[in-house]
Specification:
The complex is a heterodimer. Chain A contains five helices and five strands; from the N terminus they run βαβαβαβαβα. Chain A is an alpha/beta fold. Chain A has a five-stranded parallel sheet, with helices on both faces. In chain A, strand 4, helix 4 (89-97) and strand 5 (102-105) form a beta-alpha-beta unit. In chain A, helix 2 (34-44) runs parallel beside helix 3. The radius of gyration of chain A is 13 Å and the shape is globular. Chain B is an alpha/beta fold. Chain B has helices at 8-22, 31-44, 50-59, 63-73, 85-104, 121-135, 154-162, 167-170, 176-182, 194-199, 231-244; strands at 110-115, 145-151, 164-166, 183-186, 189-192, 200-204, 217-221, 245-252, 266-271, 274-279. In chain B, strands 6-2-1-7-8-10-9 form a seven-stranded mixed sheet. Chain B has a three-stranded antiparallel sheet with strand order 3-5-4. In chain B, helix 6 (121-135) links the parallel strand 1 and strand 2. The chains are: A alpha/beta, B alpha/beta. At the A-B interface, helix 1, helix 4 and helix 5 of A face helix 2, helix 7 and strand 3 of B.
Amino acid sequence: MKTILSVDDSGVMRKIIGRSVDVLGYGFLEAANGVQALEVVDKHRSEISLIILDVNMPEMDGFEVLTRLKGSPQWASIPVMMLTTESERDKIVRAVQAGAVNYICKPFQQDDLTVKIAQSLGEDF
Amino acid sequence: MPDVAVNPSEFKLLRDFIEKSCGIALGEEKAYLVETRLAGLLAETGCADFSAFYRMVSVQSDPHLRDKLVDAMTTNETLWFRDGHPFKILKEVLLPPLAEGLKNGSRFRVRLWSGACSTGQEPYSLAMVIHEFCRNGNGVRPDQFEIIATDISPSALMLAKMGRYDAAAVARGLPDELRDRYFLQQGHVWCASDALKEMVSFKKYNLQDPPDALGRFDIVFMRYVTIYFSDEFKQRIYGNVARLLAPSGHLVISAVESLRGISDEFVQLNHAGGTYYRCQAS
C-alpha cells in the first residue's frame, strides 16, 4: 500500500492532510518537524511513496529538509510535494527548482489537496 | 496576497481566453480572481507576468496547462440532494411515466444527463433516487437506467470516478439511511457501492462543444452552472439541451437560474415547491 508522510508543525494541518490520504486509501505517517521527518524517512524508507512537506517550520524549514532528502542517494527518489502558506512566487519557484514534484498553497479546499496528492503519485482514476 | 498583479490588457486577454476555454464570463471587477487563482500557475510556469503566462497557455496550446487553468478557474462545490425538491420532482413526476414505458416495452432504457457534475454528488444522488424507486415495487430495474455525468474539470472528474468521500463530505446532505445502503465504510471514508457506480458514467465534456456525441436524454439536470455564463452562451447551452432531449423530455435547473429571455423551447412546470421544464421540441 502506498504511504504518505506529512511533515508539518501544525497538528491540525496534519489531520487535514490525513483526511485526503484516507479518501485515497493510502497509509499515513506524520512528523511534527524536520528532524523527526528525517528519522521517519530513515525508518520507513521502503514504504513512503510521497512526502508532503510544509515550508514554514521552526528550526529546520521545509527547504532544508528537501535539500537533505535530495542530497541523500537513499531518499532522493521519494517524490516531495511542498505546502506553502500563500501564493508566494519565490517559494513556489524555489520548490520546483529544488526538486519538488508538486505544491499546494494554503488555504486550500480539501478536494484540491486530494487531487494534488493523487497527481503527485501519478494516479489516474 | 499574490506578488504579481494583472494589468487591464492582460486581464482582457486572459478573460477572453478563459471564456473561450471554459465559458466562464468574468466582469471587469473580477481581475482579482485571475490574480489569486492563477498566481500559483504563474509561478510554477516561471512566467514573469500575466502577459508571458497568456502567451504560454494560448500559443503553446499545452493541454495540461489548459487543464490546470480550467481547474484553477472553475469552482467545484456540491452537496448531496442539493435543494431537495429537484429529486422529489424526479421521483414523483419524471420517473413514473418513464417506468411505465419500460414496463410496456415502448422504451428499453431511460437516460439522464448530469451536466457539470463536479465531484459526483449530483449523479450519485440521482442514482440513489432511481435505486430507491426500483426498490419500492415500481416494476423496473436499475440496469434499465443510465446516467451520463460530465464536467470540464479533470480533477473533479477524478474524484467523482473514485466515489470516495470523507465524513465531512458525506455529512453535507446525505441521509444516514441512504449512506448506509449505498456506501461502504472504510475507516473514515465512505465509498460509493458498485450498484451506484454501475449506473453512472463520467466523461470530460466542455459545454461549449457540440453535445451530439453524448446521445439523447430523457432527463437533463443542469444546475448551478449557467449562472457564470454570458446570455449568449446560455442560449447556446439550452439550445443544445433541447436538441438532445427526447420528445417531451425534461430539464431541471437551479432556482437561481431562469430560462426567461434565454430560451422559448421549454414550458415551465411546478411541483413540490420546485420548478422544472418540459421540452416543447419534437
